[in-house]
Design goal:
Elements: H1 3-11, H2 18-29, H3 35-48, H4 52-63, E1 79-83, H5 92-101, E2 106-110, H6 120-124, H7 136-146, E3 148-152, H8 159-169, H9 177-190, E4 195-202, H10 211-227, E5 231-238, E6 246-247, H11 249-260, H12 266-282, H13 289-301, H14 304-315, H15 321-324, E7 334-339, E8 344-349, H16 351-361, E9 377-380, E10 387-388, E11 393-399, H17 405-414, E12 415-418, E13 428-432
Parallel strand pairs: 1-4, 2-3, 4-5
Antiparallel strand pairs: 5-13, 6-9, 7-11, 8-10, 8-12, 9-11
Helix pairs in contact: 1-3, 2-4, 4-9, 4-10, 5-11, 5-12, 5-14, 9-10, 12-13, 16-17
Length: 433
């Protein structure tokens, strides 16, 4: 078997066999195939695509290129959640405790952020003492006892994905749905869950800007999951504006705690219940979606979801006093309001631009070596559909410097304000099963 023949085959639009995909991945990982040939294959896939069997096989051998997490000692049906990423996305801190309080084990491996704001691990590290590097034994023990543990990703989880992504990034082949889907699903399947719920974002702050592309990606990932014996569901959710009102690491933890304590922040609560409902039905604790939503609402009202979050933080050595009193979370020196320069209704928001503004404050990373400032961020005062008067605050910037002209300019340009009234955004667009 020769790599040049595999490239020609895909260039001509023909299907690759499982053996050919296995040959390509295994030999690329052992440095027997040069980057220039793999780049050619990635470009051929970009233009010709892959069918669901090809994509499932690519995912399978990417999984097998590294470690697969053994969760066999975790009691019960393990369900994981994955978000394709957005601005203000603190859903793990709402969904994880909700699902844990319902009795479903969530053994989660999460990454750090590169871009808008920190990742789940960065946000958790805004809680003093929180340990993201548990031993495997302690990780399993925590999941069995508290039904929830979150740790940093192992460096050897689907290493073929890491190697391929670095090459795709410099050869303009990132935006291929089969390659995106296999990249995401290889890490999720290697993480060891029995079932997976995907939160696929769509809109200005999402990787997929159009609803059509978001649905294509969701369908592809659901097919991969099922092909590889993981019951998988995808929820298509809105990212035309940030989730909730807080952007930034400690800010987002604080807002998630408020939701778990019963505050009705509409979009966070709606999406949290939606994702947790599918997870608990897949996990077998509730028989229907309707029953799940009702019971999950009760777990917020009776305090059990917040108790599950508190237990999870304490079990990983986090300082629970900051959970009980969120004013103790890291904060910034300055809190500066950005005022509206006109009156009207907020018609649109550039969520990605708002995320970029948060990164400039220090809430995210422009390069992998940048350090996160846990206390900085942005509080939104207006969202799509809200009326704003001239000189009324659009956002508050939480910063450690007062030199914010660039950030203020980004924020002002991110808001589209018009005299005509407009409806609030829909949160859930579709569910793909």
């Amino acid at each position: 078997m020769r790599m040049v023949d595999i490239i020609a085959q895909k260039r001509n639009g023909d299907k690759l066999t499982e053996e050919e995909i296995q040959f390509f991945i295994e030999n690329y990982m052992s440095d027997k195939i040069p980057d220039y040939q793999v780049a050619s294959l990635m470009m051929a896939i970009y233009f010709q695509g892959m069918d669901e069997e090809e994509t499932a096989n690519l995912t399978k051998y990417m999984v097998q290129s590294g470690d697969e997490i053994d969760l066999s000692k975790v009691q019960g049906h393990k369900v994981d959640k994955h978000s394709t990423g957005g601005v203000g996305d603190k859903m793990t801190f709402i969904v994880g405790p909700l699902v844990a309080a319902a009795g479903i084990p969530v053994a989660k491996m999460s990454g750090r952020g590169l871009g808008h704001t920190g990742g789940t691990i960065d946000k958790l590290e805004s809680i003093p003492g929180f340990d993201v590097e548990l031993s495997n034994e302690q990780f399993i023990k925590n999941v069995n006892k508290y039904k929830l543990a979150v740790v940093g990703q192992t460096g050897n989880l689907a290493p073929a994905d890491k190697k391929l992504y670095a090459l795709r990034d410099v050869t303009a082949t990132v935006n291929s749905i089969p390659l995106i889907a296999s990249s995401i699903m290889s890490k999720k399947i290697a993480s060891g869950a029995d079932s997976i719920v995907l939160d696929v974002k769509t809109g200005s702050g999402a990787f997929m800007k159009s609803l059509e592309d978001s649905k294509k990606l969701a369908k592809e990932m659901v097919k991969i999951g099922k092909e590889l014996n993981r019951n998988t569901i995808a929820v298509i959710s809105d990212m035309n504006q940030p989730l909730g009102y807080e952007i930034g690491n400690a800010n987002e933890v604080k807002e998630a705690i408020e939701v778990l304590q019963g505050k009705n922040i509409e979009d966070l609560r709606e999406l949290g219940i939606e994702l947790a409902a599918h997870m608990t039905v897949l996990g077998g604790v509730y028989s229907t979606y309707a029953e799940a939503t009702e019971r999950l609402e009760q777990l917020i009202q009776n305090g059990k979801a917040f108790e599950a979050f508190r237990n999870f933080i304490k079990a990983q050595n986090g300082d629970v006093s900051v959970i009980d009193d969120v004013s103790k979370l890291p904060t910034s020196k300055f809190h500066i309001e950005v005022l509206a320069t006109t009156s009207g209704y907020v018609h649109a928001m550039d969520a990605e631009a708002i995320g970029t503004a948060a990164m400039h404050l220090g809430a995210g990373r422009a390069t992998k070596d940048d350090k996160i400032n846990h206390g900085v961020g942005i509080t939104l005062h207006k969202k799509i559909g809200d009326y704003v008067a001239m000189d009324e605050p659009l956002v508050t910037l939480h910063a450690d410097t007062e030199s914010l002209n660039q950030v203020i300019d980004i924020i002002r340009k991110a808001f589209t304000i018009n005299e005509k009234k407009v409806d609030k955004n829909k949160m859930i667009y579709d569910v793909i099963k």
